[in-house]
Amino acid sequence: MSPELSALIAAAAFGFGLLAVVLGLVRQPEPVGRPRWSASTRRLWRRFGRRTKILLAVGLGLGLVTALISGWVVALPVIPAALVGIPWLLGPGDEPRQLERLKAMEEWTRTLAGVLVAGMSLEQAVQVSLKSTAAPVKPEISRLVGRLNARMPTPQALTGLAAELNDPTGDLIVAALCMGARRRGSGLALVLSDLAESVSAEVRARQRIDADRATHRTTARGVTLITLVMLGGLTVSGSYIAPYGTPLGQFILVLALAGYVAILVQLKHMGRTPTPPRFLQAQPIRPRETP
Asked: CA–CA separation, 125 vs 120, rounded Å?
């Protein structure tokens, strides 16, 4: 058996062993009548989306072919990890979704303020606002309307909305609504209008920050693309990269790639917007007792 084939078999065994260790660390209730390892495998596999599964399969195939042709056994785990991890590391992350939710909360707050000016009660205004609620928060508002229709006390129903939104801005909106529900004053519409303006200013500020960060992400993508092209070219360049085919060279290559990944991880961490802590404590939503 050739040394390259032996190293490939050893790398595959190491990969399967590492997967077994990861699956062993995933704790979950053991299903009745089914082996635990089977349930753990299904649970871990379901965490990946369809796109991620396709990239993993393609990466494993490319890594295997590269390892067989070039003798770089490290390609077997590195290529699948790169296909899945690099788009995530160089992507915008969760920021666009958070901005869309903030915009939706701002629009819903403005709608509530406009309906309340017309003289409706808070409960009626929430029901009317459902028709024009934006998609990012419409499920939460729909469940709020359902709780109000079930005669749940308005403050408790609103507290459930804060728990479902799970956002500090949502806590501000819900706190204003809870005060309006208890005091039933005429100033709630003005408070909601001012709050909507504040949320709008926050959205604009975060959009400007994200635009600045997009420039740095574009630069990182360019550098990463050049690096990948160079690595791909070096694998077929002949004797120039021959030292990397040795076990020590493979180890040094892994260390270099790990250092580069650490830089990308730090860059992504620096690009995250810190989220203020929530101030409304979640309370369990209990069904209304019937006499």
From this structure: 6
pLDDT in the model for residue 65: 83
DSSP assignment of 63-115 equals: HHHHHHHH--TTHHHHHHHHHHHHHHHHS-TTHHHHHHHHHHHHHHHHHHHHH
pLDDT digits (tens, 9 = 90+) for 42-67: 666 666 677 777 888 888 888 888 77
Query: CA separation (Å) from 67 to 61, 82, 216, 242?
Result: 10, 15, 33, 14
Helices 168-183 and 188-234, axial angle in degrees (round to 10): 170
Report how far residue 174's alpha carbon sits from residue 151's, in angstroms, rounded to the nearest whole number.
Answer: 18
What number is the average pLDDT over the span 130-156? Answer: 91
pLDDT band at 37 (very low <50, low <70, confident <90, very high): very low
- Per DSSP, the three-state class of 274 is coil
What phi and psi, each to the nearest 5 degrees, are found at residue 288?
-70, 130
Both tokens of residue 176? Answer: 């204003």
Q: pTM of the full predicted structure?
A: 0.66
Q: What are the angstrom distances between the C-alpha of 85 and each of 118, 220, 271?
A: 52, 14, 16
Is residue 154 packed enough to be buried (19+ CB in 10 Å), middle (13-18) or exposed (0-12)? buried
Mean pLDDT of the chain: 78
For 69, 112, 261, the CA distances from 77, given in Å and listed in that order, are 15, 53, 14
Confidence of residue 39 (pLDDT cuts 50, 70, 90): low
